[in-house]
Design a protein that fits this description.
single chain, about 100 residues, alpha+beta, 6 strands, elongated
């Protein structure tokens, strides 16, 4: 039995959602995380290389020494996205400049 779905929910992210891990203020840890972004999948915490992150990273997340910093949504070039204007929704195609 795996408790990963409960851990993911407790940390406030969704499966496969990319996020950065940063040091929490006041933590005694001096080493910074260099393999951002991370995400959770059915195996556990995965770093940007697609490999499982070391267990100590997950332990420090649960202890509060590290915290999750969500990556803001940014549409890809040519992708359609929706936005709400007053009481209507409109669709536009994203063009990167």
């Amino acid at each position: 039995m795996t408790y990963m779905p409960e851990v993911i929910k407790m940390l406030g992210v969704k499966p496969e959602e990319k996020f950065n891990i940063v040091m929490a203020k006041g933590s005694g840890i001096k080493r910074e995380i260099v393999h951002n972004p991370h995400c959770f999948n059915w195996k556990g915490l995965v770093n940007c290389n697609g490999t499982l992150a070391p267990n100590i990273v997950l332990i420090n997340l649960l202890n509060g020494d590290y915290k999750i910093e969500k990556i803001p949504f940014k549409p890809k070039d040519g992708e359609f996205c929706w936005w709400k204007r007053r009481d209507t929704y409109r669709s536009i195609q994203c063009v990167m400049v």
